[in-house]
Amino acid sequence: MRFLHTADWHIGKKLHGYDLLEEQADAFQQILKIAKEEKVDAIVVAGDLYDRSVPSVEAIEVFNRMIVEMNLQEKFPVLAISGNHDSSTRLETGGPWFIQSDFHLNTRLDQAFEPVEMKNTQFFLLPYFEPISARLYFDNEEIRTIEQAMKEVITEMEKQFKPDMAHVLVSHFFVAGSEKSDSETKLMVGGLDTVPLSLLESFDYVALGHLHGKNALQAENARYSGSPLKFSLSEMSQKKGVWIVDTVVDKTTFEFKEITPLRDLIQLEGSFKELTTQEFYESIDRESYLHIQLTDRAVIPNMMNQLRQIYPRVIGVERLFGREVKEKNRAAKKEIKALAPTELVNQFFSEVTGEQLTQQQQTWIKDNLAALHQAERGK
Whole-model pTM? Predict the structure, then answer.
């Protein structure tokens, strides 16, 4: 069968205070157009439908219109899961009757072991979950990490495999070997939410959500679709779109279809005088979201207001004066961002005390961070 793989819609997300609902609705229309042109049999949405666990009324209205048009009007079966940004409890409302229109929305771990079968393919819809969910489901107190949980989960799924069908996993996790961007807010506690790629080998295709770039993972049987829009400066050069996947038993092919943002995210560099020259600003798309790098050394009175008279969507202005110092600071910040919370605590403790954490202290820190993570998810 043929299906469209998308994810990380993040309906309701704002970009430096700017509302993106119009851009998200436009991106959806392009996705729907691709689905119709490619004559897909179903649409897969691999998590993070909303940007917040309690979305705004406006975000809910936009999402509802999308589902009505995609599923009820255009009659596309929809296979979706909740992501780490979604509230599984809230999304679950309506699930029993969604199925009547071929809208399959899984929000609980136990639902993942009942595959949705379409044509020659079994879809296992695995929503984002915490290790405690697997610990309770399998009644196994030894499950403490997602890696441990996924070993049990996949073993259970494999029991449902039909040999004459293709097997597709829809999931929302960080797979080892992937690269993330700044907009993917996640908490790694000692590798808590990392899934080894080797665990996914039994599936013909793994439709992933969570990371916002399509090239975050280059595996023969697994891909992130990436987000439909650019949500951070680190995503400026990324091509956004969806995967069209064709499943045949023992042979799956996929092709990326690009979409064009209603308003792009770009970066400009120059002096204040250059940027405010008519010849310059008429040569670019001023409706884009702009990050501006100023080369001026002098203070410019009322600078932001003047720039926004010309560029209505300035998301930030950076002074390039002292570039070498800033580059060093940026590199240091990048290194810090790459550290897991436990490593950050280790580094801070060592710098302050000149000593290393004991094994018992590391265990206390890891357990407390995991508890904080769970509490945050429960809000």
Answer: 0.81
